[in-house]
């Protein structure tokens, strides 16, 4: 890879600056500075020769900066070649270039040396052409120059490591990992607040802390001096993550204490459970109907949790000792519950020949005995009743379905009849129209007047004769005001009649129709003339 010429055909000028940093560090700082500078635009770079080409907005042409090793491996030299036509205007730009590069090196923790009082100007062939005073890059350098010092002055990074850790003078884009670390830490902070109320396990709190901690470590590595921006965001994210971890651990420890306190109070709760059960026990009466009548009633009349259904019954009887349980088990045997019998010190289960099943369990700690009886007969009756209900419901649904089908069939039948009637009317109308056309055609072929035309013209002539008779009477009357209503009616009829004649389609008339029309109109006009 080669570096493009700064300005072909021109005679460029160059100067150089020395730094107390390795050539590799100086080149890295130079590259970083040009990438994020608002004044200098990076055009091209060659990592092998450590050469970059850049431009400035105010000067035409390209600048070339090359980094070489100084007098020893711990120093580096930057040589900048400027276009000849830039003239003295390039001096300020080069001074700013060296100053920005020195600041970038200081951010990265390296040292920068003061330039010598004068810097030799070289042409493209390294031949001396003129001497230009080099602008010091730092205020300390200016002070050294004023004092007449020609020896190099060293500027070192701050010795306070904590302050250096918080320093974030990097330019350019903010690290996406730093932003992600801040967001995840904020979420973990909310989880820590939630943990204060829910008391989760300590292990779960630690697991949730792993993600924000890892992101903070990655963000810290990415925001080292000379890299991406976002060091302060990373520090804030780490602080939030630590606070969230502390909150979640406090919540977890509080939950552990609460659990141990609950465990310690369990015996007292157990001892009080019998008292609570004692309060629940109430006097009850043994049922006289249903499944409960198939087993004997217990001696105690106090109980709780009574559930009575059509084919089953259950109750928990209070004040029952072990001897009472044995006595009740013997009563069940005497009642016939000996099929599939199973008995222990606290339980009894068996069936009778009818298929009824009973289960009895005694609780010696609380002196209670739970009794449950399932009646097969009642269960069969209930099953039959439900089956009958299902059958009746099915019959009803079928009846409803059949009625809907019949209704639908009736609607279809009516619809078919209406369609047949409509078709018959259409056919009848078509036949009438066809007959009328045939009649008119016969009249036309015979040379006669079309009946519809003759009828209309005859009606018109008849009305006009009636109109003329009225006008003769009206003109000769001495009470014309009394005939005004009749006159208005005649005029209304006259308007309707003339409109009817005008609406006739004369384009389909035959010669005979037209001849008859002229004859009628001639007679009408003669009669009107006689009236006027």
Report on the structure:
The structure is a single chain. 54% of the residues lie in helices and 17% in strands. A 7-stranded antiparallel beta sheet has the order 10-11-12-16-15-14-13. The model is unreliable at 1-11 and 110-162 (pLDDT under 50). The protein has 5 domains: 16-109, 2-Layer Sandwich (Alpha-D-Glucose-1,6-Bisphosphate, Chain A, domain 4); 174-254, no CATH class; 287-374, TATA-Binding Protein, CATH 3.30.310; 389-437; 451-530. Helix 5 (176-198) runs antiparallel to helix 6 and helix 11 (451-476) runs antiparallel to helix 12 (484-502). The chain contains 13 helices and 16 strands. The chain is an alpha+beta fold and 532 residues long. It is flat, with a radius of gyration of 59 Å. It starts with 12 loop residues before the first strand and ends with a helix.
Molecular shape: flat
Low-pLDDT stretches are 1-11, 110-162
Tell me the domain tally: 5
The number of E-state strands comes to 16
Q: Looking at this structure, what is the CATH superfamily of the largest domain?
A: START domain
Q: Give the second-level CATH assignment, the architecture of the largest domain.
A: 2-Layer Sandwich
* Helix-strand string: EHEEEEHEEEHEHHHHHEEEHEEEEHHHH
**What would you call the structural class?**
alpha+beta
Q: What's the N-to-C terminus distance?
A: 121 Å
Return the CATH topology of the largest domain: Alpha-D-Glucose-1,6-Bisphosphate, Chain A, domain 4
Pfam families: DUF6591 (PF20234)
Protein name: Actin
Region (Disordered): 256-277, 360-452
Biased composition (Low complexity): 262-274
């Amino acid at each position: 890879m080669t570096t493009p010429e700064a300005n072909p055909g021109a005679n460029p000028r160059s100067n150089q600056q020395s730094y107390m940093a390795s050539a590799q560090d100086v080149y890295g700082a130079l590259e970083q500075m040009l990438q994020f500078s608002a004044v200098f635009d990076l055009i091209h770079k060659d990592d092998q020769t450590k050469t970059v080409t850049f431009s400035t907005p105010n000067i035409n042409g390209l600048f070339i900066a090359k980094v070489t090793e100084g007098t020893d491996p711990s120093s580096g030299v930057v040589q900048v070649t400027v276009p000849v036509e830039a003239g003295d205007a390039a001096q300020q730009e080069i001074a700013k270039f060296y100053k920005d590069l020195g600041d970038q090196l200081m951010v990265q923790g390296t040292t920068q040396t003061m330039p010598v009082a004068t810097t030799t100007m070289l042409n493209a062939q390294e031949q001396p052409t003129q001497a230009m005073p080099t602008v010091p890059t730092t205020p300390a350098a200016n002070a050294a120059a004023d004092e007449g010092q020609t020896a190099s002055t060293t500027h070192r990074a701050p010795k306070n490591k904590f302050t250096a850790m918080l320093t974030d003078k990097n330019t350019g884009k903010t690290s996406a990992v730093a932003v992600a670390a801040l967001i995840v830490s904020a979420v973990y902070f909310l989880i820590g607040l939630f943990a204060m109320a829910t008391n989760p396990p300590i292990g779960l709190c630690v697991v949730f802390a792993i993600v924000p901690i890892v992101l903070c470590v990655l963000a810290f590595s990415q925001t080292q001096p000379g890299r991406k921006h976002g060091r302060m965001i990373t520090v804030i994210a780490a602080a939030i993550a630590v606070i969230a971890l502390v909150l979640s651990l406090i919540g977890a420890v509080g939950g552990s204490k609460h659990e141990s306190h609950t465990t310690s109070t369990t015996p007292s709760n157990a001892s009080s459970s019998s008292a609570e059960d004692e309060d629940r026990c109430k006097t009850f009466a043994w049922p006289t109907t249903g499944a409960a009548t198939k087993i004997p009633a217990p001696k105690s009349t106090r109980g709780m949790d009574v559930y009575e259904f059509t084919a089953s019954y259950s109750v928990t009887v209070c004040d029952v000792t072990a001897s009472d349980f044995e006595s009740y088990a013997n009563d069940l045997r005497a009642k016939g519950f000996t099929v599939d019998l199973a008995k222990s010190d606290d339980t009894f289960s068996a069936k009778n020949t009818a298929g009824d099943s009973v289960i009895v369990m005694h609780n010696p700690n609380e002196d209670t005995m739970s009794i449950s009886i399932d009646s097969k007969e009642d269960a069969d009756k209930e099953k039959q009743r439900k089956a009958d209900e299902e059958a009746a419901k099915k019959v009803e649904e079928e009846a409803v379905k059949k009625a809907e089908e019949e209704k639908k069939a009736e609607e279809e039948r009516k619809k078919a009849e209406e369609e047949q009637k409509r078709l018959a009317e259409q056919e009848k109308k078509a036949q009438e129209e066809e007959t009328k056309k045939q009649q008119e055609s016969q009249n036309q072929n015979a040379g006669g007047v079309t009946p519809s035309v003759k009828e209309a013209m005859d009606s018109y002539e008849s009305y006009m004769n009636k109109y003329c008779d009225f006008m003769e009477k009206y003109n000769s009357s001495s009470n014309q005001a009394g005939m005004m209503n009749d006159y208005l009616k005649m005029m209304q009829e006259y308007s309707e009649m003339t409109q009817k004649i005008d609406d006739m389609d004369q384009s389909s008339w035959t010669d005979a129709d037209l001849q008859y029309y002229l004859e009628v109109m001639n007679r009408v006009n003669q009669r009107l003339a006689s009236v006027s």
